[in-house]
């Protein structure tokens, strides 16, 4: 029952192994089309691009038209005919008999062109900064997508390596258990060896369950990014050589992160926008000047002295000087000054974080390269140690637990080696992202490390 359950879990985990393997670029293209986080960032960038047209509109003329059609019926009683009273046009005179039927058709075309509105000008300048902020945030989202895809991709490979290593260890432990049982039956070894081999077998079976579950979790995480269940993924080439960071010094990376990181760029633009906001709010104390022009057409039909068509055209300037508004402008200025101070501190925080991320990624790459080199040597040593222990077990100078420990050490070293390689590759991408230089083309050399 236990073996059949394991077989089902393994089959579900590697169901796509017969399909053509997808490499990192294939997965990234899927993420570009289907990742919801990136799609949201793309929509936000489109929103930001509309800020400039909206800000520019405050400097352009406003043209509008309005009008009305009114029908006015007035009935005059016979007993009031010829009497002195108020006529329909509002004047006093002799009321004619029979009443009146008036129809008025009037429309006005108006234009307002701002000549001096300092708040509108500052809003327009702000709109450029806000658009630039959205573009920087979108570039940051593109870099985040690259690192998220790479991380999820290599997490799946690491989980597959762990499962493969666990299965290989299980096979070796099974053979060791069978050998211990045979030796006990012929009386060359004690029951203790059999119990040790059985305990090792039970442990690796439990580890296999955990490895299968972890692989499914990692595949699900990748699926959340690309939108579909991932197919088989191309693994790293055996014995692949990883490149060191270029430049090899940490200071250029940190300096680049402090100035070119997209988070820092967005924070700098946000600070400039906050400064513009102070000037925009102070404009509440400034006068405004507009050019105004309008044309009114009025046509009246009916029995009245105002019947006929009237055309009126006017043009001029209109000014307004604010005197007192309940200290609202002063309060908004104080608010914007505080927001500017907040933006300045946010910029400093973002700059420090970017520098810290760059340092961590740089150290992670160099540490990873050193670990890979050490683990490669450890793999060779562990392989030799296992062979020596197997030979010593056969001739009686080593006991069963020595072989089991050597097996465990070898497979643990292989698992750690593959994990170190993946972490080093991802840290290299994160280092470029922290410095603001990560591009889609940077995936090509990483993709070349994979088996096609």
Task: Explain what this protein looks like in three dimensions.
This protein is an alpha+beta fold. 64% of the residues lie in helices and 14% in strands. The protein contains 11 helices and 6 strands. The strands form 2 sheets. It has a 4-stranded antiparallel sheet with strand order 1-4-5-6, with no helix packed on it. Strands 2-3 form a two-stranded antiparallel sheet. A hairpin with a 5-residue loop joins β2 and β3. α5 (118-186) packs antiparallel against α8. The protein starts with a helix and ends in a 5-residue tail after the last helix.
Structural features:
single chain; alpha+beta; 4-stranded antiparallel β-sheet; two-stranded antiparallel ribbon; 11 helices; 64% helix; disordered N terminus; OMP_efflux; cell outer membrane; TolC family outer membrane protein; T1SS_OMP_TolC; signal
